[in-house]
Amino acid sequence: AEPGTEALSGTEAGALLLCEPAGPVYTSGLRGGLTPEETTRLRALGAEVRTTGRGGLATFHGPGQLLCHPVLDLRRLGLRLRTHVAALEGCAVRLCELQNLRGARAGPPPYTGVWLGERKICAIGVRCGRHITSHGLALNCSTDLVWFDHIVPCGLVGTGVTSLSEELQRHVTVDEVIPPFLDAFKETYKCTLISENSS
């Protein structure tokens, strides 16, 4: 995500929000993804169901997942929206490489996200209004993948999901991957991050 000529160096371009969701929560995007009957069924499992303003269809969020929501002014970074999405994918691919998972790759639409073979390890769903982004990515670290069995993740029939823990055959926590993820973000976006920890 090379900043364009219009990028303003040395200026604040936004914020990067990271968290691990308490969940379980199913979300649907602007294109829908869940019928009223499916919503009732998912709530009966003990999950929340929410409609969001991001792109994409239905997905799951829960413990063991790293959520990254960049709130960025794309004009200040000199980025187009598609370049921003590709940069988010690049961050997740780089994190996988740092975890010695060499086969990670970004998929073309409608397979947006990061994949290991036919299994998605990171979902991407972004919103952009007046050049300001919201939402972002969800990377499965030690997520209970059974929750994905109750939906068609991202509307992609015949594909699966995976996690860092599944691929590395050890328990990988969100806290463990945050430092290398931040390194990958800084490297990809060519930016400086200032920590403002919040309770």
UniProtKB/TrEMBL annotation:
Keywords: Acyltransferase, Transferase. Residues 10-193 form the BPL/LPL catalytic domain. Substrate binds at residues 54-61, 123-125, 136-138. Its EC number is 2.3.1.181. Pathway: Protein modification; protein lipoylation via endogenous pathway; protein N(6)-(lipoyl)lysine from octanoyl-[acyl-carrier-protein]: step 1/2. InterPro entries: aa-tRNA-synth_II/BPL/LPL, BPL_LPL_catalytic, Octanoyltransferase. It is an enzyme of class 2 (transferase). GO terms for biological process: protein lipoylation. The active site is at residue 154. Transmembrane segments: none annotated. One of its GO terms (molecular function) is lipoyl(octanoyl) transferase activity. It is found in: Mitochondrion. One of its GO terms (cellular component) is mitochondrion. It catalyses: octanoyl-[ACP] + L-lysyl-[protein] = N(6)-octanoyl-L-lysyl-[protein] + holo-[ACP] + H(+). The record marks 120 as: Lowers pKa of active site Cys. Belongs to the LipB family. This is Octanoyl-[acyl-carrier-protein]:protein N-octanoyltransferase LIPT2, mitochondrial.
